[in-house]
Structures are given as structure tokens and as C-alpha cells.
TrEMBL record:
Family, per entry: Belongs to the polyribonucleotide nucleotidyltransferase family.
Domain S1 motif: start-end pairs: 623-691
Binding site for Mg(2+): D486, D492
Region (Disordered): 693-712
Annotated Basic and acidic residues bias: 697-712
Protein name (record): Polyribonucleotide nucleotidyltransferase
EC numbers, comma separated: 2.7.7.8
Length: 712
């Protein structure tokens, strides 16, 4: 017998069924939100995994295309690797839940979410987030929850809780906030330059809704929750810490980590590790956890230096940004390039432009977005951190970083009508020591401007960190955290935006949530740093987008035609459009609304293709001038192709002002000639002239107009 629980959430019913399916999982919840159905499960291994010093949590979000009545494409006809949306959703579920598991827990845990039915007005991503929290809370897996998630939109200046699909399409904000009972634990946002005060208001509106969801989860746990199981603690023994401190004093450790050079610090720690391994050579049980003990020792040292001594490992002030540098045009043949350097973090970004037909097609469960014309990709090679490993393609981290930068830049991109290009930017990590995703935003913004993309405003990104003490008001916010401060700190609060406002936020934390004062200070701190980067660094490298795309970039011109004439331009089996492409070497894209984009590197050929298209869709009238090819010669004249399937004839008497004995004396087949339409007779035959006098003469007025003029 299963149990069912329901609550009203943003005007729709959220129903949770426990005990109906997946009974062998440690915890399972069949989630219904409107007609959206997601099965959320939580499972854990019986024993800890040997030889690891981290919590092995896996989060899966599986999009089943049957959920929206689709059969997967391709030969295999089954779902393949996870989509980008599925990967990003898995990360958003992981980030708020990971800190709530015990720090010394090493059992494998998998949170699996299967999307089985989708109501586009009821987010399956949100349903899965809440479902994972419920499945884990009612399971016997140790978990300091529950937590809850809410989405917020901004429609016509009003904040909307869990917006519907139509509201999302016009929303100026896509914000997701996860909370525990008291604090905010995760923030993910994309926004159209939303002011900081509005963003803060939205975050805490979501936090209020989350408290209602947590109360609902508490009722489920009270009836269905299992007793949490005992587990083997993998905490470092206190006696090992004491022994280490006798050999390496806190002052020695402070000297070892107090440097701006990552390589020097790593060498110092390597020597300390070697020293301790020799000292504990006869204690195998200590050697097994020595690496974790040294990590914890470094962490305590760095946190004490920052929180108590107000000293950062590289000597900077708490609100000081590392040395910055920006430059453009590093790569001569690409369409746009820029490099942004912040301390030992360096990103080289390359921009590529292409016709709209090169836009990415999306095949997933979201009907709102089926393609995207802007793609941002992020790469993190091992050499950027001085390591060696083969490249195996992007992982979840790389996909997440690329999506964050993409989200930050989309609000400032020109419309397709303003700039009819597909755009790809690629961030290559040259060096990494903290916050490469935000350096990626800066370099991408400059790369776009260098490529001649007329973005509305430059965008910069910066992250701040946090070190907390024993109470809520004992904390320090750090501007521009480097890798060490990220590893040993409590927060990585990333914010991208313009002078006007925020375009993206991503907040990762390792503690059980943030108070409102911390969030407000973090947002204020990142704004100050962002404006400094925009004005004092990026603007000096490139202040505004170039007026034209580079010489190696394709040129695109657009015209609009009557949609009913599209068939004439394409022709039977594509013969007409293919002939234009073959003659001019351009690419042609035609939309259903009659928008025609012509792309090529030779402007003359683009102009020629547009002229041909216009001639196809335009009714030919007397007085018009065309440039066409001689396609046939007869004794009495020559036939000229004005447009595909539209020929006109030049009578031999109209080839020249002088007498012509033979047509071939003036023109031959294949010649490109300029002609004027003299007449289109009742049978639709087009009579042309090449006489210079006819070409320069004004078109004659209609006979009726002449008669009226004479009468006056």
C-alpha cells in the first residue's frame, strides 16, 4: 500500500507518491507536478569505497523522449548520451545536496531522476530537484536535509514563482534557488541585465516559497522516513593531526602556503608530504589517510590566516583583484580572438561566425528551444594546471562552465534581424588558478567585439569567496578567489553582468547555506569588481564592437521576399537555388516568413545572388535594367537570361546604336550583358535593348499620361 501527499505550488498541484514503485531503492518518490511525472530515487552502497578521499555522489537526470511523445532520431532509436540540459540539471541538483551529506561519508550514493511525462508548464527539472531531496530525506542515507528548490521569473517587472512556458518566453530572469530550513544553499540565474536589488528580492522570494515546500517534505518524512543507517567514518584520526603538528608546526605550514605562485606552494607541500611519509613509514594506517590529513591541515591554516589574521595566501587585501591583462587579435586568421588574464588564470577565446543554417539543432524534451544560434564552448586541457592526461572530450565541469558563460552573454547579443549570423565562441584555458569560467566571460565578450558582433554592452565576470567562523556573523567575503581559496573556502559566488545589471549567477557552497547579509555583500562586492574590470581593463583593450566583421569572416546580406515566391526561388527539386549557388559560390538560407540570407566571402558575388533572387520574385516591367547572361543566339537577335526561367530577347536592331550585320559581331553565348526592358507584350514576351541611348534614357510615361499633359 503506497501513500500519497499533495500541496499547491504556484497554482498547480504537486503530488508525491511513496511506496508505489522502486521499492528496492533506499528512497524513492514518484513526483507529479501538473502532468509532469518524474521518478526520483536515492541509493547507497553498503560499505565505503576504498582508497578515496572524497564523497562519491553521482546525480543523474534522464530525459526520456517518450515523455513528450517523440521517438529518438538516428539508427539506434533509443536515448544516447545525456543532453546538455540533462547534464546542467544534474549539476544543479548536485550542488545544493552535496554539502548536506556527512563530510566523512564515503559510501557511493546515486540520485537518479527519470523524466517520464512532461507538462511544459510544470518544469521537470524543478520536479526532479524536489524529488531528489524527498527521496534522500525519506531514505536511510545520512542526510542533513531536507532542502527545496524554486524557480523565479520576471515578467513585466513582476516576480513570478515557477513560471509557465509562455511566461518563460517573455521573462527577463531565469532564477533557481535552493534552500535549507534557514538559509539559501544554491543560486543559479540567467538574466537580462537585471539590477542587483531586484535579483536579491527574487532570491529571497524563492527562499520563502522553499520554506513551504520543506514543511511539506517534513510531513512526508514523518510518515515514511526510514531511520538513518550507521556508517564507517573516514575522518582523519585526531592523534594523527597531533603527530603531524609536532613535525610540521602551524608556522611552517603557514610559510608553505603563503605564496602567490601555485607551483612554489605545491613544491612546498610535496616536501612536507615526503617528510611526513618518512616519519610515519612504520604506520600503514596513518599513511593511508596522510594525504587527507595534510589537505585538512592546509585548509585549517588558510582559513585561520584569512578569518583571524586577515591575511590571504598571496598577500592581497580582502577586496583586491589579482593583476589583470586583456588583449585582442592574437590569432590572425580567425574571425575574432581575445585573451583575458587574471593572475595565474588565463583564457584565450576565439569567435567564429557562420550562416544561420549552422545554428545548433536541439533534440530534447523542451519544446520552447529547438535550436540556438549562439554556442559557447569551454575547454580545460591538463597543461593548464601543469598536469599530464589524455584529452577525452568535455566533462560535466567543462559543459557547465561553457553554459555559464553562454548564459552571461546571450542577453547582450544582437537579434537575428540585426546580425543574421550563427555565432560560436570557444574558450581555451591557457592557465588555471581559480575562476576560469569568469575569465571566459571577459575574453568571450572582447572576442565578440573584435569579430564585429554588435553586442549591446561588454560583459565581465568575477567570483568572490567566503570563509566562515563559528557564528553567522563571523565571516569574511573575498574578492577574486584563487584556486587555494576556492578549495579551502566555503563559497564560490560567480556573477557576470554589464554596467546595467546582472546577466548570470552561479553559487557553489560547501556549508549548510548563506544568510541574507552574506548574499547581499557578495552581490555588492562582485558588482564593484565587475565595473572595475569593464572600465579599467577590458575597455582599454577594445571599447566597442568593430563596425564590420573581419576580412576572413563570411559576409551576410538579408532581403525579404513574398513567402508565396519561395517556391520560385527554390525551383523544382532545388534546381533554381542550386544554380544560383553554383554560379555565385554563396550560401543561401530561406525562412518560412520569406527572410533570405545570402552568405559569402566575395561581396560582388553576394550582390549578384541577391540580384538574381530579386529578379525571380519581381514582376518584370518596362524600364527595368538587368544584368544577365546570353544563353541563345538566333539570326534575328539574342536571348538573355534575366533570372532563372525568365529570358528576354534583344532584337538585332537593339544590340547597338550602329547597324549590326550579324548578332555574333556584338554578343556571344555566355557573355554577361546589361539590358533594359523595353516592353512586356500581352503574351508575356520580354523585349530588351542594349542600345546605350535606351539604357540611359528615362522610362517613357504611359500613353494616357502623355495625352493628359497635352490636353492641359
Amino acid at each position: 500500500m503506497y501513500k500519497s501527499f499533495s500541496m499547491e505550488l504556484a497554482g498547480r498541484t504537486l503530488t508525491v507518491e511513496v511506496g508505489r514503485v522502486a521499492k528496492q531503492a533506499n528512497g524513492a518518490a514518484l513526483m507529479h507536478y501538473g502532468d509532469t511525472v518524474v521518478l526520483a530515487t536515492a541509493t547507497a552502497s553498503d560499505k565505503p569505497r576504498d582508497g578515496i578521499d572524497f564523497f562519491p555522489l553521482s546525480v543523474e537526470y534522464e530525459e526520456k523522449l517518450y515523455a513528450v511523445g517523440k521517438i529518438p532520431g538516428g539508427f539506434n532509436k533509443r536515448e544516447g548520451k545525456a543532453s546538455e540540459n540533462a547534464i546542467l540539471t544534474s549539476r544543479v541538483i548536485d550542488r545544493p545536496m552535496r554539502p548536506l551529506f556527512p563530510k566523512d561519508y564515503r559510501n557511493d550514493v546515486t540520485l537518479d531522476n527519470i523524466v517520464m511525462s512532461v507538462d511544459q508548464d510544470c518544469s521537470p527539472e524543478l520536479t526532479a530537484m524536489i524529488g531528489s531531496a524527498i527521496a534522500t530525506s525519506i531514505s536511510d542515507i545520512p542526510f542533513d536535509g531536507p532542502c527545496a528548490s524554486t524557480q523565479i521569473g520576471l515578467v513585466d517587472g513582476e516576480l513570478v514563482v515557477n513560471p509557465t512556458q509562455s511566461q518563460k518566453q517573455v521573462s527577463d530572469m531565469a532564477l533557481t534557488v535552493a534552500s535549507t530550513r534557514e538559509k539559501v544553499i544554491m543560486i543559479e540565474a540567467g538574466a537580462n541585465e537585471v539590477p542587483e536589488d531586484v535579483m536579491i528580492q527574487a532570491i529571497f522570494k524563492a527562499h520563502e516559497v522553499n520554506q513551504e515546500i520543506i514543511k511539506f517534505i517534513d510531513t512526508i518524512v514523518a510518515e515514511c522516513g526510514k531511520t538513518k543507517h550507521e556508517y564507517t567514518s573516514c575522518a582523519v584520526p585526531e592523534e594523527l593531526f597531533a603527530a603531524i603538528k609536532e613535525i610540521v608546526t602551524p608556522e611552517e605550514m603557514e610559510v608553505a602556503v603563503f605564496t602567490d605562485e601555485k607551483q612554489i606552494r605545491e613544491e612546498n607541500i610535496r616536501k612536507i608530504t615526503q617528510k611526513l611519509e618518512e616519519a610515519f613509514a612504520d604506520k600503514e594506517e596513518w599513511l593511508a589517510v596522510l594525504g587527507e590529513a595534510i589537505y585538512q591541515y592546509q585548509k585549517k591554516t588558510v582559513r585561520k590566516m584569512i578569518l583571524k589574521d586577515h591575511k590571504r595566501p598571496d598577500g592581497r587585501a580582502m577586496n583586491q583583484i589579482r593583476h589583470l591583462a586583456a588583449e585582442i587579435d592574437l590569432l590572425p586568421r580567425v574571425h575574432g580572438s581575445a585573451m583575458f588574464t587574471r593572475g595565474q588564470t588565463q583564457i584565450l577565446n576565439i569567435c567564429t561566425l557562420a550562416p544561420l543554417s549552422e545554428s545548433q539543432r536541439l533534440d530534447g524534451i523542451d519544446d520552447m528551444e529547438t535550436s540556438k544560434r549562439y554556442m559557447h564552448h569551454y575547454n580545460f586541457p591538463s597543461f593548464s594546471v601543469g598536469e599530464t592526461r589524455p584529452s577525452r572530450g568535455p566533462g560535466r565541469r567543462e559543459i557547465g562552465h561553457g553554459a555559464l558563460a553562454e548564459r552571461a552573454l546571450v542577453p547582450v547579443l544582437p537579434s537575428e534581424e540585426e546580425f543574421p549570423y550563427a555565432i560560436r565562441t570557444v574558450s581555451e584555458t591557457m592557465e588555471s588558478n581559480g575562476s576560469t569560467s569568469q575569465a571566459s566571460i571577459c575574453s568571450s565578450s572582447m572576442s565578440l567585439m573584435a569579430a564585429g558582433v554588435p553586442i549591446k554592452s561588454a560583459v565581465a565576470g568575477i567570483s568572490c569567496g567566503l570563509v566562515t567562523g563559528d557564528t553567522d556573523d563571523d565571516y569574511i567575503v573575498l574578492t577574486d578567489i584563487q584556486g587555494l581559496e576556492d578549495f579551502f573556502g566555503d563559497m564560490d559566488f560567480k556573477v557576470g553582468g554589464t554596467h546595467k545589471g546582472i546577466t548570470a549567477i552561479q553559487m557553489d557552497i560547501k556549508i549548510h547555506g548563506l544568510t541574507r547579509p552574506i548574499i547581499e555583500e557578495a552581490i555588492r562586492t562582485t558588482r564593484e569588481a565587475r565595473l572595475y574590470i569593464l572600465d579599467e581593463v577590458m575597455a582599454k583593450a577594445i571599447a566597442e564592437p568593430r563596425k564590420e566583421v573581419g576580412k576572413y569572416a563570411p559576409k551576410i546580406d538579408q532581403i525579404s521576399i513574398d513567402p508565396q515566391k519561395i517556391g520560385d526561388v527554390v525551383g523544382k527539386q532545388g534546381k533554381v537555388i542550386n544554380k544560383i549557388i553554383e554560379e555565385t559560390g554563396v550560401k543561401i538560407d530561406i525562412s518560412d516568413d520569406g527572410s533570405v540570407s545570402v552568405c559569402g566571402t566575395d561581396q560582388a558575388m553576394i550582390d549578384r545572388a541577391i540580384q538574381i533572387i530579386k529578379s525571380i520574385v519581381t514582376e518584370i516591367e518596362a524600364g527595368q535594367i538587368f544584368t544577365g547572361k546570353v544563353v541563345r543566339i538566333m539570326n534575328f537577335g539574342a536571348f538573355v537570361e534575366l533570372a532563372p526561367n525568365k529570358d528576354g530577347m534583344i532584337h538585332i536592331s537593339k544590340l547597338s546604336d550602329k547597324r549590326v550585320a550579324k548578332v555574333e559581331d556584338v554578343v556571344n553565348i555566355g557573355d554577361i550583358v546589361t539590358v533594359k526592358v523595353m516592353e512586356v507584350d500581352k503574351m508575356g514576351r520580354i523585349n530588351l535593348s542594349m542600345k546605350p541611348g535606351d539604357l540611359t534614357a528615362k522610362a517613357e510615361e504611359p500613353k494616357e499620361a502623355k495625352e493628359e499633359t497635352a490636353a492641359e
